Every structure is written in C-alpha cells, then in structure tokens.
Amino acid sequence: MTDIKMTHQYPRVLTIAGSDSGGGAGIQADLKTMSALGCFGMSAITALTAQNTTGVRTIHAVPPEMLTDQIDAVVEDIGVDAVKIGMLHGPDIVQAMANAIDKHQLRRVVLDPVMVATSGAVLIDNPAIQALVQLLFPRVDIITPNLDEAGLLVGRTLHNEHDMQQAAQQLLDMGAPAVLLKGGHLQGDTVSDLFITRTGHTQWLRAPRIHSHNTHGTGCTLSSAMASHLALGHSLPEAIAQAHRYIRQALQSGASVRTGHGSGPLNHLSAPVPMHLRPLNISNESL
C-alpha cells in the first residue's frame, strides 16, 4: 500500500453544550452548522436533555470530570481552532469550563449564555449564572445573549433598543470583552441586534424579520456559526456578519417545513459547502 502524505487539515471547532434529543438546538444544531460551513465539528456534552419542539422535559447534568475528560481528549489529539460554549447547567460545570480554557489556552471562544429555551423553560440555576459572569466572561472573546438571557443577567426586562444599549454596556462592565445582544424577541418587522465591544465599537445589525414558526435553536446556530467563521480566520465583526447571513438563509429555507408540533428547527443544511482544507502546520497543530 502506497503511503499517502498528509498535507492538510480541516478548521476545527469544538462545541461545549447540552444535547438536544429533538435535534434542533444544542450540540446537534452546532454540529450541523459547523459541517454546513465546511468545518470539522467536535463536541463536549455538558448535559443531556429530554426535549422536542414543544419543550424541555428533563435535564441531566454531566459530571464535571466527564466534561473535563471530553475536552482534554479532543484538544490533546485533534486540536481546536475555535470554541462555542452553550448550556452550562451548574456552577461546577462552569468552573470545569474555566479550568479547561486556562489549561489548554483555548482561543476564539464564543459564549452563548443559554438560560432560557425557546419554549420558555429556564435551563440554568442562579449559582451557575453568578459563576458564568465571574469565571467565563473575562475568559471568552464574546457573549451572545438574547433579550431574555440579558434580562436575567442584568436583573430587569428589556423592552426596546434603548434598554438593549444600556444592558449591553452593563454586560461589558460585568467583564465581557464584547457582546452581541440579540433583539429578535422585540416586536416589529425589523430585527435589531447590537454588537458592542469594550474598545468602543458599537454597531447595530438590522434586517427584515423572517416570519417563521421554526425558530428552535436559533441562538445555538448563530453562536456556532460565529465560532466556525472565527476558525476560518475571519475577524470578529466579519464572523458576526457571515453568521447573520447563514442564519437568515437557514430560517428562510426552513420556514415552510413542519417538524414536530411546536417550534421547529432551522434548515441548517440548505446550502452546505465542502470541508475547507488548509495546509497542515505541524508546529501549530493543537492551537
């Protein structure tokens, strides 16, 4: 058998999140998104959920040691170019995640502080929220809360763009280096997201609302698309712009499809691209 020289590698993206048995959010949505964008997706599961399009029935947290082992196994063998963090159900899991970031010097980290499911179910306890702010905000590149999640973090309900601006600044003051505050829950025909950084960059991303019953996993999909584009070498503003294009296409192409009896999933694979290849750099193999 002729030896084949290995000269390339895929962009490697690790999702650290909960499993969605319905396949529309969490780990399942993340891996679909990463594959659709031409990246090699890997996973470390933080919790098992029994859920479908109508709601979450049960959450079973993974022991912190198991989460640590999953991350160690992936990083030490395959390497990681970018990370998406989703649901972290308890403070011990948050601590394990912070330890892993420090141990492996993980970079290009997108934190989606998953706290409330599309169905309205609360997915995180108060001690975990406090740990999230204290331990992870300073260690990641950006956080991507929706209005409900930002409201939990700042302690008040957000009603309009002015509230969003104030809340985003407060999240920066709480330690986040950058915030993408998603305004999709506001009423109106325009969806407004706010991207703001501690260095003073402020940008509103506005687009016509895509009317669809299939919005389950939208936040998971957006954050994993951002991580994928960071792994592809894009800057943070460009990764956000590219992720927005992807999510709108997934929403639009999945709007007429019925999956289940509640809020269905997006069409993650409406326009997949081939796996990206880039030259293998042995000295940089486990970034």
Please tag this protein with its features:
globular, 287 residues, single chain, three-stranded antiparallel beta sheet, alpha/beta, six-stranded mixed beta sheet, UDP-N-acetylmuramoyl-L-alanine:D-glutamate ligase
Rounded to an integer, what's the Rg over CA atoms?
18 Å
Helix percentage? 25-40%
Give the N-terminus to C-terminus distance in angstroms: 32 Å
Question: CATH homologous superfamily name?
Answer: Ribokinase
Number of helices: 8
Low-confidence parts lasting 5 or more residues at pLDDT below 50? none
- Spatial order of the strands in the main sheet? 4-3-2-5-6-7
Question: β content, as a range?
Answer: 15-25%
Number of strands: 11
